[in-house]
Amino acid sequence: AENLGTVLPQRVQAIHLYQLTNYTFGVKDPQLEKDTSVDARLQRMKQKYEKEGIRRTVEGVLVVHRHGHPHVLLLKIGNSFFKLPGGRLRPGESAVDGLKRKLTSKLASPIADYHPDWEIGDVLCEWHRPNFTKSMYPYIPCHITKPKERKTIFLVQLQEKCLFSIPKNLKLIAVPLFDLYDNSARFGPVISSIPQLLGRFTFIYNTLPEENDPNAMETS
């Protein structure tokens, strides 16, 4: 038999998941996109790159459960565009501080007393944009010396309960991992890779005695 050597024990990190019905969902004033098309966004990115250098962005993976299966919270724009909550870092801003700021801007109530206490966890992955195109990769291609964007994806451990406030022009939807898996045609390569990135964690499902159907929350 083939000798595979000594298998070293590895620490498996646990994630506490709370059911979707634990959370309250409201609305706030709309947040309009700065660009009307992908081409316009890439052109603006090129102009900023010439002034500021590489674009640094951060996004958060927020996970809940419904009927004992993990669901990822995604922002839905229009009928067919999905994205993780996050955005561009300011010059000199740390990734953790920037992600907390962006999560508050996208998902928190306008009233500061109701802001969630964002717990930023592990880095799940980094994606790189080698050129001013839509293509991004979880590595820097060998012929690229100056990538145009670096996107860092973090796990965010949600509190047991909190209030989300979503801009009126967006929807926050909970998508099960089985819908995301191997589904880049619908969600793109970054979001569809989340099930694999979460595979190294153990999920701890925290459930109330009775789980009601979420009336104020759309699921995929």
Describe this structure as you would to a colleague.
The structure is a single chain. It contains 5 helices and 12 strands. The chain is globular and about 50 Å long. The relative contact order is 0.27. It has a single domain, classed as Nucleoside Triphosphate Pyrophosphohydrolase, CATH 3.90.79.10. The protein is 21% helix and 35% strand. The protein has 220 residues and is α/β, with parallel strands linked by helices.
What secondary-structure arrangement, pairings included, does this model have?
Elements (H helix, E strand, L loop, with lengths): L12 E6 L5 E5 L9 H15 L2 E12 L2 E9 L3 E3 L2 E3 L6 H13 L11 E11 L19 E9 L5 E5 L3 E6 H4 L3 H9 L1 H5 L2 E6 L11 E2 L1
Parallel strand pairs: 1-11, 2-9, 3-8, 10-12
Antiparallel strand pairs: 3-4, 3-6, 4-5, 4-10, 7-8
InterPro entries: Cleav_polyA_spec_factor_su5 (IPR016706), NUDIX_hydrolase-like_dom_sf (IPR015797)
Keywords: mRNA processing, Nucleus, RNA-binding
Main location: nucleus
Entry keywords:
single chain, 220 residues, alpha/beta, Nucleoside Triphosphate Pyrophosphohydrolase, eight-stranded mixed β-sheet, 5 helices, globular, NUDIX_hydrolase-like_dom_sf, nucleus, Cleav_polyA_spec_factor_su5
